[in-house]
Fold this sequence. Notes:
Elements: H1 20-30, E1 55-59, H2 64-69, H3 76-87, E2 96-99, H4 113-130, E3 134-138, H5 140-146, H6 152-155, E4 160-162, E5 165-170, H7 173-178, H8 181-190, H9 192-197
Parallel strand pairs: 1-2, 1-3, 3-5
Antiparallel strand pairs: 4-5
Helix pairs in contact: 1-4
This protein binds uracil.
Amino acid sequence: MADPRLTAPPALLPLYEVPPAVAGLYEEVADCPACILARTRSRTVPGSGPVPSDLMLIGEGPGQREDELGLPFVGRSGQFLDELLDTIGRSRQDVYVTNVVKCRPPANRDPEPAEIAACGDFLERQIEAVQPRVIATLGRFSMARWFPGERISSIHGRASRAGDRWVVPMYHPAAALRAGALREVMKQDFQQIPALLAGDTNSKATRP
Ligand code: URA
């Protein structure tokens, strides 16, 4: 139940064509008053890419540029994400991308547990609509949904089965921009994705 003390600014829909299967959901996101982030956002950032899609990437939350445009990963992290996708022959046009929270945390602070919980139902419904074969979590906040209590440094790049899909924890691209050595680590982790998409259950990435 939304906190009635919170008032959301007028809804601004994303600046691009929305797949019909998620149009209603994106409108709900645009009107969402369920947490304090609704007070400070410019645009909501529900997600981008085709629905359904075999590959889904889940980041943390929108930054300044994303908040301005209503699209995920359009800043520097996004440029590196595009490079990573290119190494496996994919692009934004054929990958679904979203975040655990759909509104920018002020000053790019970490999302709070209450904010992640308030957005949780949107993420569930997106996964239902997208029906990905592989989900790559980018950073510790999306990782925690499937791997609570784990450390990213211990499990990055190791795929686990979650129902009928694979979930692969990855570092966040921003971490690789801060610590250059992680760029190569992320590139290597991304190389697990094609085998998982192809249904290769003997992938080296698979946990024992
Ligand atoms: N970082 C994220 O986690 N998501 C974005 O959309 C942009 C930067």
